[in-house]
Amino acid sequence: MAKITLKNLRHSYMPNPKGPEDYALKEVDLDWQDGGAYALLGPSGCGKSTLLNIISGLLVPSEGQILFDGQDVTQLPPDQRNIAQVFQFPVIYDTMTVYDNLAFPLKNRGVDQATIDRRVREIAEMLEVTDMLNRRAAGLSPDNKQKISMGRGLVRDDVNVVMFDEPLTVIDPHLKWKLRSKLKELHQRVKATMIYVTHDQTEALTFADKVVVMQLGEVVQIGTPVELFERPAHTFVGHFIGSPGMNVLPAELRDGAAYFHGQQVALEGPVNPGTTGKVEIGVRPEFVSLGDSGIEATVRRVSDVGRHYVIDAEAGGSKISAILNGTAPMVGETVHLQFRADQTRVYADGWIASTPATEESAA
Fold first, then answer.
1. CA neighbours within 13 Å on the CB side: how many for 30?
2. Contact (Cβ atoms closer than 8 angstroms) between residue 264 and residue 258
3. CA separation for the pair 324, 302 (Å, rounded)
């Protein structure tokens, strides 16, 4: 296991990149602590697979360094980095038994038979596949095959990091939650540094202690699941995480106050001095309610999702979503929307540009 440090990392697939738009991975500086559970989260094309390939040694970055426990491994090939990787599709040998599949990485490294047997049975017990050890892998279900693939990555005790590249893509939805729970349990037991790459927010937020959110080759926020939900540093984070995502509304600033559709909106605290650029207001649907006063809007859609209603309303040409309990308004009805002030923020060119009142008063 190792602490992983990425310093001034950039990568372009072009031989002579001239500007930021030519880089698949813009400048990245990250520290991943030894034994942590991390997720790389973002849509297809955001750079997360490029970053994973650089860490694993499959790709040498155009610029920057990768350090394992302070040692520069930027130029080292994958086999010298002691990395285990689990891919979208299970990498196992169908003609071998489950036991032999789990033992294979250890046999390859000349580990003695007693240690192999002990490690295989430990991992099999963790994965709940002990009763399958003598079965051929060809007959296993997809979720059990992926369990074995995970086990092959975990059976070695000399790995610096275990990396998971969209490991649940081919798993049936009703089985995904079981494997997610199992993976979280495995991390807590083996204490290995784990990096989980996914475009699925549920997978990232349920697995990781810290999530790295990426967009267009750039890291836009690093935080715990709670931090990403409660205070998105960028409108992309607010939109990408949550269902439905954060409302992002066009706004203008006048004398330090924010206005939407001509109406002043109460904020979490003061707007940062000198804020310019494209100004927007962000508020999550969970913090939008109905009242006797507020922003006048017309209800366009009402969705009953069981535990609550999701209301889509329109005001000033913008869609505003609200999550409501109790009685829902009718489609076409005029309502007044109220935003919870301490959860309403200003963003400029996508980045947060307001400060919570408590932070301001403490400064």
1. 31
2. yes
3. 10
* Per-residue pLDDT at 169 exceeds 80: no
Q: 318 burial class (0-12, 13-18, 19+ CB within 10 angstroms)?
A: middle
Amino acid code (one letter) for 321: S
Domain identity same for 16 and 163: yes
Nearest to 228 by CA among 204, 249, 257: 204
Q: In whole angstroms, what is the distance from residue 273 CA to residue 123 CA?
A: 55
Quick one: pLDDT band at residue 1, thresholds 50, 70, 90? Answer: low
Q: Of all helices (H) and strands (E), which one includes residue 264?
A: strand 263-265
The first and second tokens of residue 84, run together, are 């285990």
Token pair belonging to 105: 């990485």
| Rounded Cα distance, 49 and 47, in Å | 6
Shared domain for 180 and 91, answered yes or no, is yes
To the nearest whole number, what is the mean pLDDT of the chain?
90
- Predicted confidence (pLDDT) per residue in 92-142, tens digit: 899 999 999 999 999 988 999 999 999 999 889 888 899 999 999 998 988
- Summarised one tens digit per residue, pLDDT across range 258-303 is 999 999 999 999 999 999 999 999 999 999 999 999 999 999 999 9
ω into 285 cis (within 30 of 0): no
* Final residue of a structural domain among 175, 202, 230: 230
- Domain span at residue 337 reads 244-362
Please give the structure tokens belonging to residue 154.
């975990």
Tell which of 205, 230, 255 closes a domain. 230
Q: Are 222 and 228 in contact (CB under 8 A)?
A: no
C-alpha angle 217-221-222 in degrees, rounded to nearest 5: 110
